[in-house]
Design a protein that fits this description.
Blueprint lengths: L1 E4 H13 L6 E7 L5 E9 L14 H13 L3 E9 L8 H6 L6 E6 L5 E7 L4 E4 L1 E4 L1
Parallel strand pairs: 1-3, 1-8, 4-5
Antiparallel strand pairs: 2-3, 2-4, 5-6, 6-7
Length: 136
């Protein structure tokens, strides 16, 4: 399960709305657990993809700086998020091919209708869906 504080969830939705038709992305921070993680903060990272309307690629230098900041603040990296402006909330073939952080959550916020967030954990051979909960 992946749980979010209301503020963290809302920050992803706001970031996604601000991106318009472009995918946005970032890091989920909080308390990491192998079976259950809790997100208390999110940190946007620039989408450096050549085609940000259909792909995301986190700027590597900015990503490392954000991870350092998260850990220096005493939090864990819980996973990553990105948006699918036209939906759906499940990972694309490209998302699956590019996932590398085994055991971490990959949250996808879709905007095809009401904003909705789905999440998957990368298990090495593929993604396993996980329940999303929002506090507050």
């Amino acid at each position: 399960m992946l749980s979010f504080t209301r503020d963290a969830y809302d920050a992803i939705v706001r970031h996604g709305h601000g991106g318009g038709d472009r995918e946005v992305c970032g890091v989920l921070a909080g308390d990491y657990g192998d079976g259950e993680s809790h997100v208390t903060d999110v940190s946007p990272v620039e989408n450096a993809a050549d085609t940000p309307q259909t792909r995301y690629a986190m700027d590597p230098e900015e990503l490392l700086a954000v991870i350092d900041h998260v850990e220096d603040a005493g939090s864990d990296v819980v996973g990553f998020y990105h948006t699918h402006p036209a939906g759906p909330t499940h990972p694309s073939t490209t998302d699956v091919d590019r996932a590398t952080w085994r055991g971490y959550s990959y949250a996808i916020c879709a905007f095809d209708g009401h904003p909705f967030l789905g999440s998957w954990r990368w298990r090495g051979g593929g993604f396993a869906g996980e329940r999303v909960a929002i506090e507050g």
